């Protein structure tokens, strides 16, 4: 394992993008996205389309969720691994997480909400849906840029339609010692694209291709965008799917929220033939 470095992740500004792909600003940002994803598989996105009140409200909703009794949280069950409640693992005792499938679809979120709050909690489901809808716009912009930059426009609709949005919410307790403790073990994400948003307690670390670890310090205005293994496979290795982990220090709890675009059940990821050549033989 490499050492810590002061390397910084690219910061890409999505705030001034016009509506239409093809505008000069769109192409500039697209180039930055491609470069960052080739090199790091990750970047920090400034995306001011998400109103401050939703960005604030989401952590209120997440805290309310984690404050439920353990038995209630465990009702957040799923057949799919890492889609439901995860926690109480001796190897990562600080970590707990829950998942909301189809988080952009109000009826789906409302039915999960009724399982956790049989008396209802409209505020909670409204916050989850608006946050997820707005972040999914960033997911769509980034994926459209990726598709264009790979020259795969003819697959754009198929690519956009092959995923659902899972919202996962994470809580990491502060270790309350002077030592740094593992919050979440090093892994790559299995989905297409992950967009993370955190409260102001840092801890996420990203491994570079040469093995060093970068500490991510996103601001309240920025989102961490990361590629998962599904997109790595679809692009036949042209984009990097980075290892990352969470390391916790201090007393404060870290809350993070991730919007994961996940291939629909049964959808088989296959690199388009355009991605395969002598330099890039088929990986999977
Ligand atoms: O909490 C974070 O910022 C990262 C979470 C993560 O990597 C994951 O859920 O896959
Ligand atoms: Fe992850």
Note the beta-strand portion. Answer: 15-25%
Number of continuous helical runs: 7
Series of H and E elements: EHEHHEEHHHEEEEEEHEE
Q: What small ligands are held by the chains? A: 2-oxoglutaric acid, fe (ii) ion
Q: So what's the overall shape?
A: globular
* Unreliable stretches: none
The proportion of residues forming helix, as a percent range, comes to 25-40%
Distance between the termini: 26 Å
| Overall pLDDT score | 94
Count the beta strands: 12
How would you classify the helix and strand content by structural class?
Answer: alpha+beta
Roughly how many Å is the radius of gyration? 19 Å
Strand order of the largest sheet: 1-2-10-7-12-5-4-3
Main sheet summary: 8 strands, mixed
Structure, described:
There is one protein chain. This protein is an alpha+beta fold and 284 residues long. The protein contains seven helices and twelve strands. It has an eight-stranded mixed sheet with strand order 1-2-10-7-12-5-4-3. Strands 6-11-8-9 form a four-stranded antiparallel sheet, with no helix packed on it. Helix 1 packs across helix 5 (122-149) and helix 4 crosses helix 5 (122-149). The structure holds 2-oxoglutaric acid and fe (ii) ion. One of its GO terms (molecular function) is dioxygenase activity. Probable 2-oxoglutarate-dependent dioxygenase that may be involved in glucosinolates biosynthesis. May play a role in the production of aliphatic glucosinolates.
């Amino acid at each position: 394992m490499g050492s810590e470095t002061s390397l910084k992740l690219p910061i890409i500004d999505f705030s001034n993008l016009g509506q239409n792909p093809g505008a000069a600003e769109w192409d500039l940002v697209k180039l930055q996205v491609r470069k960052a994803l080739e090199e790091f598989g990750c970047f920090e996105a400034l995306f001011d389309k998400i109103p401050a009140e939703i960005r604030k409200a989401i952590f209120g909703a997440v805290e309310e969720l984690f404050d439920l009794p353990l038995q209630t949280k465990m009702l957040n069950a799923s057949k799919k691994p890492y889609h439901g409640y995860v926690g109480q693992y001796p190897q990562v005792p600080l970590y707990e997480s829950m998942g909301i499938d189809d988080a952009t679809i109000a009826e789906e979120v409302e039915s999960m909400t009724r399982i956790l709050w049989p008396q209802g909690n409209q505020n909670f489901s409204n916050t989850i849906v608006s946050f997820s809808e707005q972040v999914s716009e960033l997911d769509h912009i980034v994926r459209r840029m990726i598709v264009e930059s790979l020259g795969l426009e003819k697959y754009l609709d198929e690519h956009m339609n092959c995923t659902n949005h899972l919202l996962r919410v994470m809580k990491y307790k502060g270790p309350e010692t002077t030592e740094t403790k593992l919050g979440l073990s090093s892994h790559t994400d299995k989905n297409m694209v992950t967009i993370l948003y955190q409260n102001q307690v840092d801890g996420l670390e990203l491994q570079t291709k040469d093995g060093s670890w970068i500490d991510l310090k996103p601001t309240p205005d920025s989102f961490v965008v990361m590629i998962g293994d599904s997109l790595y496979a679809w692009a036949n290795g042209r984009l990097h799917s980075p290892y990352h982990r969470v390391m916790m220090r201090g007393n404060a709890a870290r809350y993070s929220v991730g919007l994961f675009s996940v291939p629909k059940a049964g959808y088989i990821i296959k690199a388009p033939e355009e991605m395969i050549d002598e330099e890039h033989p088929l990986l999977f």
